[in-house]
Amino acid sequence: MKKGTMIMLGVVLCLIVFLTFNRKTEDASPTPPPSGEPAGQNGKIINVQNERQALYAFVKTRMTGPFGVFTNFKETDETGEAATGHEVLSESASLQMREDARSKRKEEFARHWALARQTFDLKRGFSYRYSPKQQKKYPLNAAVDDLRVIRALAEAAKAFDEPAYAKEAEKYGKRFYETNVKDGKLYDFYDETYGITNKFVTLCYIDLRTIGMLPVPDASRQALLDNMKSLIAKGYLSDAFPFYETRFDYEKNAYTSEGINMVESLLTVLHLAEAGEPAPASIRYIKEHVKAGTLYGRYTKEGTPATQVQSTAIYAITAMIGSEIGDASLYQDSIQRMNAYQVKDEGSPLNGGFGDVASGQAYSFDNLMALLAYTY
Predict the structure, then answer these.
(1) Which end of the chain has a smaller Cβ tally under 10 Å, C or N?
(2) Contact, 3 vs 354, CB < 8 A?
C-alpha cells in the first residue's frame, strides 16, 4: 500500500518555527470495541465492524506503550528534531480520547485521560510531545491538540453524563484562552519556558467548534470566532482549487504556504463543515476526487498534484466531512477508499493497521484518524 501521511499536526508545524523556531505495555489482550455499530449514523449504514475491530486491536496491542500510542510503529532512538518511533504525542492522546467518547467507552476514556494528564500536562498547556527514552516532556503546546483535548472532555461529559468532565473542559478551556489567544487572535503554540507564543496561526489549527465552547465572555469568544473565520475565508485559494493557504503570519500580515498539504486543507474544510460553513466548491471537489480516488498528499497552490502519494488520513477526514454535511455517499465512498489501505495479512505485524508493510512504518495519526472516522 502507499505510505501513510507522515504528518503529526501537533509536531512538525511547531518545530518548523521553533527551530528556525514504556512501564510495561498495557494489557496485551485486546479489549474489543463495545458491541453494536459505531456511534455515528453513517457508520451504521455500512458494515465496518470487522475493519474497526481489527484496527482497534492493532492500536491497542501493537501501537500502544506505557505512555500512550506510539508516533510510529517502528522504533528509533528518539533523538530527532521531529517526533519519531515510540515517542508519544498529545495529538494521539486527544484523538484516542475523542474516539473513546464517541464510542461510549467510559472506562477506556477515564484511563486514557488519566494517562494523558500524567504524560502531557504542564502548568500552562499540554506538552505536544514526550520522549520516553530521553525522559523529556517538551515545553510547547499545540493549539489544535489542546483544543481537541477540550472537545474530548466536553464530548465525554455528554456521552457519560459526567459533570466532572465538563468542569475539566472549562478549566482547560480557560487556561488555553489565556495562553494561546491574544487580542482576539489564535496562535499555534505557547512556549512555557519563555512564556511566549509564536507569531502565526496555521489555518488547520482553527477548530471553530471547540473555540465556540471556550468558557470566556460571549463578546470575547465571538470576536475570536469572527477573526478566525475571516482569516480562513481570506486564505481561500480559488474555486478552481478550493482549498486554503497553510498559515497566516500576524507580524507580516501575510499568508505563507510551502505547497498545499491536503491533510491540512481538509482539516480546515472539516472545521468549516462543523460550523455549517464549508465552501460549496470544496465539497464538490472533494466528492469528485474521492469518487475517483484521486486525492493526493501535496499540491501546488494552483492545484497541480506535487506527489502521487495518497494516505489513510486523507480519506478519514473526507469521511468526517461527509458525516458533518449529511452526505452519506461521501462518507461511504471515503471509508471504502480508506479501507483499501488497511493491512490484511495475519503474518504481518501491521495486520489490522494502516501502514507500509515493506518499511514497517505505521503512523499514529493515520491509524487514530481512521479509528475516529469509523465513529462518524
Answers:
(1) N
(2) no
Joined together, the cell numbers standing for residue 370 give: 481512521
**Pairwise CA distance, residues 376 & 371, whole Å:** 10
Q: What is the DSSP letter of 140?
A: B
176 HSE (CA, 13 A, CB side): 32
2 has a pLDDT exceeding 70? no
Question: Do 364 and 72 contact (CB within 8 A), yes or no?
Answer: yes
Cβ-based burial of 341 (10 A; exposed 0-12, middle 13-18, buried ≥19): buried
- CB burial class (10 A; 0-12, 13-18, 19+) of residue 185? middle
Q: What does the alpha-carbon distance between residue 76 and residue 43 come to, in Å, rounded to a whole number?
A: 36
pTM for the whole structure: 0.89
Q: What is the mean pLDDT of residues 112-122?
A: 98
35 Cβ contact partners less than 8 Å away, ≥ 6 residues apart = none
34 has pLDDT over 60:
no
Amino acid letter, residue 200 = F
- Cell numbers 506535487 label which residue? 306
Task: Work out the average pLDDT over 175-204.
Answer: 97
Helix/strand/coil percentages in the chain, nearest 5 = 45, 10, 40
Cα distance between residue 268 and residue 228, in whole Å: 11
Are the C-beta atoms of residues 357 and 1 closer than 8 Å to each other?
Answer: yes
pLDDT band for 41, please (50, 70, 90 cuts): low
